[in-house]
Design goal:
By secondary structure, the protein is mainly α. The chain is built from five helices and four strands. The protein has one domain. Strand 1 and strand 2 form a beta hairpin. The longest helix is centred in the middle third of the chain and has 17 residues.
Length: 139
């Protein structure tokens, strides 16, 4: 899954990260996620039509949005960088609050983007974890 697809899923499921509470930190200064709202709304609108791939103008618009998102995230459209951006720096508390409001118990991001490494798992409450259990086995 790409950043663009995740952003579209967030939009379609009412997870509003497209506001001034969220910023991208990879360029000098901060860019607000508000900049992503209109392109993502356009993308979601176009791709909601099952025949959008048959329309040249729709295809060009989708390619344009994807390119905009890639440039926004430092020429990258892989989910690990979005995961870091949403959970690091000043974005983390606001992202956690939105997830809790939407009854999420945690999240997983594929940080290595399919390469070697492991995903990032985050539980929003330690109450969801059980106490360690050990069992002795005699051999």
């Amino acid at each position: 899954m790409t950043i663009t697809a995740i952003l579209c899923d967030f939009h379609q499921n009412g997870i509003n990260i497209f506001n001034n509470s969220f910023h991208e930190f990879y360029y000098k200064g901060k860019k607000s996620f508000v900049d992503l709202k209109q392109p993502i709304e356009l993308l979601c609108d176009i791709t909601s039509n099952p025949d959008w791939k048959k329309d040249r103008d729709a295809n060009n618009s989708v390619k344009s949005v994807i390119k905009f998102v890639e440039i926004y995230f430092v020429d990258n459209d892989t989910p690990g960088i979005l995961g870091q951006c949403l959970t690091d720096f000043e974005n983390g508390a606001a992202f956690k609050a939105i997830l809790e409001e939407n009854n999420f118990e945690g999240y997983v991001f594929n940080e290595p983007n399919g390469l070697t490494g492991i995903d990032t798992f985050c539980f929003l409450s330690s109450d969801k974890l059980s106490l360690p259990q050990n069992r002795m086995v005699k051999l």
